[in-house]
Write a structure and sequence with these properties.
Blueprint: E1 2-5, E2 8-13, E3 40-45, E4 64-70, E5 76-81, E6 95-101, E7 106-109, E8 122-124, E9 130-136, E10 150-157, E11 165-169, E12 187-195, E13 201-210, E14 221-227, E15 237-242, E16 245-246, E17 252-253, E18 259-267, E19 274-282, E20 292-301, H1 304-312
Antiparallel strand pairs: 1-2, 2-3, 4-5, 5-6, 6-7, 8-9, 9-10, 10-11, 12-13, 13-14, 14-15, 16-18, 17-18, 18-19, 19-20
Amino acid sequence: MTVLTGSDRTRRRRGGDVASAGLVWGLSPRCPQVSVAGDTTITVRMWLRRPTAMLLKPAYPGASIADVAFLEDGRLALSMAVPAGSTNTGERQLREPWMYDPARGNLTQFETRDSSPRAAAVSISPDGDHVAYLLPGPSASQPGAAGARLKEVWVASAEPTPPPVRVFALPSANTSSTPGSANSADVEEVHDLAWTPDGHHLLVTVRLAAIAGGYAPAPRSRLLLVDASPEQLGPPVELMTLPAEVVSGSYTWAPDGNWVAFLTQATSGSGGNNFVALCAVDTRAGGAISGFRYVADLGRWSDPAGAATQLRR
């Protein structure tokens, strides 16, 4: 007797028919083989399961999905780029944190005590309970204002009780050097941020924005490990200084949660292309040179973000 139900096919054979030779299932060495000596019901999956696909769209017209990553529980963390509030071409495009639950099909905005943050960069923690974001200094009128220097990293909770906490801040441009800056003649800004897999720290990228005299500087970036817990805030740990700019959102973490690979870009002369390289750093090394690897040259790219996409495939 043969019964087909859904994606399963069930066959029932009397053991006497196969007692001498046995009943063998499987068309290849990888298939299971079963010898039947009596009345036995065997269920064999004959059809491949089809994956369920969901096309994610921006939350509202004019917005776009800038980045997406899986959380620990299988939900998706999205960075939603919102349209500029004016026609000023120098204005930064701000982003909002959103979350998508594949099991329920719900797309919801990440809410904090005050409201959902809208900032130049946002990143949801691996457990989905906190969001980190970048803001300019207190003197800036708007988070995305043209020329506004990003100086601060804030962390907010999804719980209604704790207020947002500033976990890192660069010094003012006219102050002396501090543990968060390179030297007093440099003007830096926070460029990007990402959570470590354990959710205890933030990988913060700081880039050189200007030098003394207002001249355009050569590219330079610093990678900092910043405490993300308000109860255990300490000085940032400088992991590495690179003569290039780190490509935003290009981070890929090793399974041990310590090493992180990322892309860097540097101007390669005329033509508008950038020289892209793959690097890696060990967040446990505390800035020691042994914790850095220059992995590979990836050639010249007009769009370094495209190199990051190709690398992840």
